[in-house]
Amino acid sequence: MKILVVLTGGTISMVRNPKSGALHPADTETFRAFVPELFAQDIKVDMLPFTPLIDSSDIKPEDWSKMAHTIYEHYDQYDGFVILHGTDTMAYSASALSFMLHNLSKPVVFTGSQLPVGVLRSDAKENLLTAVEIAAAVNEKGRSMVPEVCLFFKEKLYRGNRSTKKNAEYFEAFESFNYPCLAKAGVHIDFRDSLIHQADNLPLEIWDKLDSNMAVLKIFPGITRAVVHAVLSTPNLKGVVLETYGAGNAPSFEWLYEELKEAVDRGIAIVNKTQCETGSVEMGRYEVSMNLLKAGVLSGRDITTEALLTKMMYLFGRYGDDLKKIKQMLQVSLVGEMD
User: What is the C-alpha to C-alpha distance for residues 268 and 252, in angstroms, rounded to an integer?
Assistant: First the structure.
């Protein structure tokens, strides 16, 4: 088995200078020194670093395109891929690639760490080695166990577009609140086959045109019409993630209805996403969500903000001005991102 490890940046790609104490990017030889097990097993591992490495806070859609093209260009040479990435925006990147890579039949496993690879108590080694093993795992028919974009962190493998960073301090940094984990690593790796997407073995296709004219509007007590109007009046705005209360509720102010209705009538796609970590939008369940329905706001059901935002970028990039098609696709699951 051959696995390509792509270093994009992040804490896992850094080591500490023993003299100065400063962090600096690691190269392949440094990884070989700190994680010799990575190169001393039956799985052949090659490493491909981005130049320069990218802090995950600086990630842009252009970087997602670079990641997707890296997979596409090396697809026939490797059995699986591991992408080392900073934790802050890893869920966004994993979500974006899940939409950009069509007909994926090999694993693309994102992972990272909370501490650099060279630190004594680092979680980097466990996350990296297990991610590689998952990327190389095949079933009795010789097919990849997890032929989708996923994210491994602290013993659990999540669907990439279902994951969210939940903790900035502890090693268990990610969670998939509305979808069970795809696998759990202990003495053995327990793959949950019934939860994993099954590939059709069609040729891989890539769609890297993304439209980033999106916004996230979070409803809060005391929000003013001026704030809502300012967001919805953003030049070239195409789509809005509307983060609401509970099961998709928002204030029943007439002005809020008017602002949303006017934006929808101008061709802006607005999708309702609950602020709660767990649960789904159910517009119409409570009277305070009726105005959203009347204004033409769509339901995002149980999708994450990361997946919804990148899905909108992908759909507007792909279908352009075909708003009817985009709205239709926003309400169905494309790659397991929503129920």
Answer: 21
Q: Tell me if 2-206 shares its fold with 214-330.
A: yes
Q: Which residue has the tokens 């300012």?
A: 230
Whole-model pTM: value is 0.94
The CATH class of the 214-330 domain is alpha beta
Which residue from 49, 91, 90 is spatially nearest to 70, judged by alpha carbons? 49
Task: Indicate the domain borders of the chain.
Answer: 2-206, 214-330
* 2-206 CATH, one of 3.30.43.10, 3.40.50.1970, 3.30.565.10, 3.40.50.1170: 3.40.50.1170
With bands split at pLDDT 50, 70 and 90, how would you rate the model's confidence at 116?
Answer: confident
Per-residue pLDDT of 251-291, as tens digits, reads 999 999 999 999 999 999 999 999 999 999 988 777 778 89
Residue 278: Cβ within 10 Å count: 9
Is residue 184 within 8 A of residue 190, CB to CB? The reply is yes
Q: Which pLDDT score is estimated for 106?
A: 97
Assess contact for 85 and 92: CB atoms under 8 A. Answer: no
Q: In the numeric block, which tokens belong to residue 90?
A: 């890893």
- Cα dist. 183→78, 177, 196, 220 in Å? 22, 15, 9, 36
11 part of the active site: yes
Q: Which residue in the list 11, 164, 304, 305 is annotated as catalytic?
A: 11
